[in-house]
């Protein structure tokens, strides 16, 4: 969760932290932006001789990594992250010339690539000045407060290597103390505004433009539509398979048993009673399977109790203690409610099956036009959407509603799964 800085940033320690962040920005502007801009120019020039086809994708990975780092730190430092504007680019093996050529063409046709190049060019001076100025003022002021008077006291007018301060007599030497205090205060006060100004500069070039946002939105909708169609097709196949292998087979068996009983009703009453008993058992099992199937489509508890009651019932059914916190002003729309319920249910099932945890937590609330849920556990961690744990399927289910599923699960735990669904 992004921490928004407020009044707690007024202390000297926090202001020094902003100065240190400025130094980081200045260093990255020289070590990162200058070096990568040079490498980008070389890679573009190398396209003429063909080597750049293999070199440019590698360089752009580093460029986009640096730009994304600045976008992320903008969110961490100011509470206002910068969105990623890049179009999807297919990866290519280093030895695959055809795919590398296609990847280069995609990179060069992406406007965000050229905005990154312009950003690196301008960030070299802008990042250096805005990042280093606060720390320079603080260092210059500390020199006047702590160094200049004592060097004058010990070396006097022979202080030839002396000073960054214009010292002509002892009075000037001691006047450097209040001047240094003012400069330190100025450096501490301007650190945060200057870094915010640098963030605005980054946003100007690193944030997606209106056309880029629309293009990314279209690409996202195309992906989610395809995933939704595949997910619904798989769900229909599952329902058909469950009906064919379960309730339908039992109903066929029931019909055969009743038909046989009809033919034996006068010849073998004992066998008829046995067949009727089997028929009653088959009908009971078929009814149970149909109820399970309906519960998998839309659980009755969800229709009866709403999302609040249904989720609490899920938590009570687990074999471990679950801390539940639910704050919902009203029931969400039925499709959103159903999607949220199934995602929470599957996540809690994963906690039971795979996490090795002995305690879990569940929080469900509504804020900023979205339904949010967090499921956490104290298990072994290591949950990966690509690892076949079903998390990728949950992401596809939420993507149909323009929702997201974020997973934080470092090895050793804990695991925190955060769901967000647009919901008025």
TrEMBL record:
<dbReference type="InterPro" id="IPR050482">
    <property type="entry name" value="Sensor_HK_TwoCompSys"/>
</dbReference>
<keyword id="KW-1133">Transmembrane helix</keyword>
<keyword id="KW-0472">Membrane</keyword>
<dbReference type="InterPro" id="IPR036890">
    <property type="entry name" value="HATPase_C_sf"/>
</dbReference>
<feature type="domain" description="Putative sensor">
    <location>
        <begin position="26"/>
        <end position="206"/>
    </location>
</feature>
<dbReference type="GO" id="GO:0046983">
    <property type="term" value="F:protein dimerization activity"/>
</dbReference>
<dbReference type="GO" id="GO:0000155">
    <property type="term" value="F:phosphorelay sensor kinase activity"/>
</dbReference>
<keyword id="KW-0902">Two-component regulatory system</keyword>
<keyword id="KW-0547">Nucleotide-binding</keyword>
<dbReference type="GO" id="GO:0005524">
    <property type="term" value="F:ATP binding"/>
</dbReference>
<feature type="domain" description="Signal transduction histidine kinase subgroup 3 dimerisation and phosphoacceptor">
    <location>
        <begin position="235"/>
        <end position="302"/>
    </location>
</feature>
<keyword id="KW-0597">Phosphoprotein</keyword>
<feature type="transmembrane region" description="Helical">
    <location>
        <begin position="117"/>
        <end position="142"/>
    </location>
</feature>
<keyword id="KW-0067">ATP-binding</keyword>
<feature type="transmembrane region" description="Helical">
    <location>
        <begin position="173"/>
        <end position="195"/>
    </location>
</feature>
<dbReference type="Pfam" id="PF13796">
    <property type="entry name" value="Sensor"/>
</dbReference>
<dbReference type="InterPro" id="IPR025828">
    <property type="entry name" value="Put_sensor_dom"/>
</dbReference>
<dbReference type="InterPro" id="IPR011712">
    <property type="entry name" value="Sig_transdc_His_kin_sub3_dim/P"/>
</dbReference>
<protein>
    <recommendedName>
        <fullName>histidine kinase</fullName>
        <ecNumber>2.7.13.3</ecNumber>
    </recommendedName>
</protein>
<dbReference type="Pfam" id="PF07730">
    <property type="entry name" value="HisKA_3"/>
</dbReference>
<keyword id="KW-0812">Transmembrane</keyword>
<dbReference type="GO" id="GO:0016020">
    <property type="term" value="C:membrane"/>
</dbReference>
<keyword id="KW-0418">Kinase</keyword>
<keyword id="KW-0808">Transferase</keyword>
<feature type="transmembrane region" description="Helical">
    <location>
        <begin position="34"/>
        <end position="63"/>
    </location>
</feature>
């Amino acid at each position: 969760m992004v921490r928004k800085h407020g009044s707690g940033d007024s202390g000297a320690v926090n202001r020094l932290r902003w100065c240190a962040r400025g130094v980081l920005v200045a260093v990255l502007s020289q070590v990162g932006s200058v070096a990568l801009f040079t490498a980008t120019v070389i890679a573009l020039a190398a396209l003429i001789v063909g080597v750049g086809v293999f070199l440019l994708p590698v360089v752009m990975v580093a460029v986009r990594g640096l730009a994304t780092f600045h976008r992320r730190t903008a969110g961490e430092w100011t509470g206002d992250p910068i969105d990623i504007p890049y179009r999807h680019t297919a990866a290519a093996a280093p030895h695959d010339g055809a795919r590398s050529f296609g990847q280069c063409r995609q990179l060069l046709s992406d406007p965000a690539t050229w905005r990154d190049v312009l950003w690196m060019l301008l960030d070299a001076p802008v990042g250096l000045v805005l990042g280093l100025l606060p720390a320079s003022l603080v260092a210059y002021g500390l020199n006047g407060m702590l160094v200049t008077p004592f060097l004058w006291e010990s070396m006097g007018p022979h202080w030839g290597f002396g000073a960054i301060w214009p010292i002509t007599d002892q009075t000037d030497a001691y006047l450097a103390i209040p001047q240094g205090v003012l400069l330190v205060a100025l450096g501490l006060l301007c650190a945060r505004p200057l870094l915010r100004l640098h963030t605005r500069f980054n946003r100007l070039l690193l944030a997606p433009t209106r056309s880029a946002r629309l293009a990314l939105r279209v690409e996202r909708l195309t992906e989610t539509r395809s995933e939704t169609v595949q997910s619904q097709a798989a769900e229909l196949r599952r329902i058909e398979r469950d009906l064919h292998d379960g309730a339908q087979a039992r109903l066929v068996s029931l019909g055969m048993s009743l038909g046989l009983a009809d033919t034996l009703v006068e010849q073998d009453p004992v066998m008829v009673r046995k067949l009727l008993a089997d028929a009653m058992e088959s009908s009971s099992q078929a009814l149970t399977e149909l109820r399970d199937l309906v519960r998998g489509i839309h659980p009755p508890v969800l229709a009866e109790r709403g999302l609040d009651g249904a989720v609490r019932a899920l938590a009570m059914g687990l074999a471990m203690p679950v801390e539940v916190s639910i704050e919902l002003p009203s029931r969400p729309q039925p499709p959103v409610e159903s999607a949220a319920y199934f995602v929470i249910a599957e996540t809690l099932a994963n906690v039971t099956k795979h996490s090795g945890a002995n305690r879990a937590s569940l929080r469900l609330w509504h804020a900023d036009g979205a339904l949010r849920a967090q499921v956490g556990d104290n298990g072994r961690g290591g949950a990966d959407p690509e690892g076949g744990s079903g998390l990728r399927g949950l992401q596809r289910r939420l993507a149909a509603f323009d929702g997201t599923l974020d997973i934080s699960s470092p090895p050793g735990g804990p695991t925190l799964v955060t769901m967000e669904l647009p919901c008025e």
